[in-house]
Write the C-alpha cells for this entry.
Amino acid sequence: MGRRQFPEGFLWGGASAANQIEGGWKEGGKGISVPDTMRQRFDEDLKDYNVQNRAVLADVLKALETDDEENYPKRHGSDFYHHYEEDLAELAAMGFRCFRMSIAWSRIFPKGDEEEPNEEGLKFYDRVFAACKKHGIEPLVTMSHYEMPVHLALQYRGWYDRRVVDFFLRFVKVICERYKNDVKYWITFNEIDSMLRHPYTSAGLLEECFPGQNFEEVIFQAMHHQFVASALAVKICHETIPDSKVGCMLTKLTYYPYTCKPEDVRKAQEIMRSTYCYSDAQVFGEYPRYLLTYFKNKGITIRKEPGDDEIMKKYPVDFISFSYYNSYCAAEDGTGLEKSGGNTAVGYRNPYLKSSEWGWQIDPMGLRISLVDLYDRYRRPLFIVENGLGAKDVLKEDGTVDDPYRIAYLDAHIRAMLDAVELDGVDLMGYTTWGCIDMVSESTRQMSKRYGFLYVDCDDYGHGTYKRYRKKSFDWYRKVIETNGSCLFD
Ligand code: BGP
C-alpha cells in the first residue's frame, strides 16, 4: 500500500449547531426557540448518564418569563452571531474545506407559522455564507438541528400537528431559494432517531400537552410527519438547487454484546436496529417491517395522509450522515453491570475501553465498525458529521491550551476512518469534527464540556470575554487537512 491518505476532495472540516454556537437569541428579529427555554443542568448529577431530558411544560413557561442568560446557556452560546467573521477566518486558517452549521428556524420564521420570512434573519446567513465563500469553505447546512420556534411547540404541540410539516416546508423553500448559490450540501433532521429519547428537543413534544394519549404513539406520529417533511425537503432542494446533495442524519449508537451469550448478541442487534429504522425510512423511502411489526405489537396507529407513502418512496436522501462519539455494551440481563453514558443514550460499561470525563467510552475501532455497518446496509455515500471529545480544557496564563487528549482521540478515530475507506471499501464523503469551536453542550448545557480547536473564554454561566484562543489541536488538525491525513503515518 502506497502513502496512506484520504481520497482527493475529501471534505475535511468541523461542525456546529445554531442553538449551541450563535447566541444572539433575540437579535435580528429572531423568535424564541425550544433550546432558548432549556435551563442549565449543572446542579444535576451529570454522572447519571444523560438522564433523558424529559422537558416539562411548567419549566418551559417559566423560561418564557425571563431574559436570564446565565441559567439558559443556549441563549448566549459562543456568540458566533457577532464573531462569525473571525471564526470562519480561523477555520480557513486550519484549511477547512467544509463547515457544518444549521440555520435557526426561528431566525427566519420567529414564531414558525408566519406567511413571510424575517428579512434580517435571512441577511445574517447571507453574511455567514459570504464569509464561507470568501474562504473557499463549503457549508454543510442542517435544516433542523433541535431549533424549532417554541410557539409551534406550545400553540400546535410541535411536530404532532400535521400543519407543522407545511410550516417547515415553507421555511425550506425560503432557505433553498435564498441560498441556492451558496449551499449545495444539506441535511434535513439532526439525529432524527433521537426524538424517542428527547421528544421536546427534537420535536417540541411535551407529554402534559397530550393528556390521556399514548405518548409513544404521539412521538411516532411526529416522526411520521418528519419523514414526510424530510422527503419533501429533498424534493424542494433538488428542484431549487440542481446539483444539491441532501442527507439524513442519525445518531450512530454502536452497541456490543456484553458477552458472547446469544441473548446478549440479540439484545445489541435489537437496540441498533431500533435506531436504523429511522434512517431506513429516509433511505429506502418506506417503513421497515421491523417498525411496522413494533407498531402492531404495541398497538400504535399512525395517521397518514393520502400520498404520504408515495412521497417517502419518491424522494429518498442522497447520502447518510451520522454522529459517532462512543460505543456501549448491551446485555439481556444487566444485573450487576456498571452503566455507561454516551451521546443521548445509555449502555453498560465496556471493561476494555477508557471513558471520557463525562463517562463516554472512547472507541475508535467502534467508528470503523459503524462505518462498515452503515455502508453495508445502505450502499450510499456516508458523511461523519459529528465526532469529537468533550473535555475540561484549561486556558493557561500565556493564552495557550494543551489538549493532547483531544489530539489522541481524533488521531485514533481518523486512522480508523482511513482503514474503513482503504481496507473495508467504505465510500466516505467527509468528516466534520463536532464542536470545532467551543460551544454549549447539548446534553448538559455546559460550556466547560469543550470540543473545539478554538477555546472560547466563556464559563458555564456565560461570563467571559468570548475571546478565542487556538488550542494545540488547532495546528495538529491543520496539518492533517493539509496532508489529507497522510501526516498521521509519517
Ligand atoms: C449530539 C448533537 C450535537 C452535539 C453532540 C455532543 O447529539 O447533535 O448538537 O451536542 O450531541 O453532545 P454534547 O454536546 O451533549 O456533549
The pocket of 6-O-phosphono-beta-D-galactopyranose is lined by residues 17, 20, 190-191, 323, 343-344, 386, 390, 434, 441-443, 449 (CB under 6 Å).
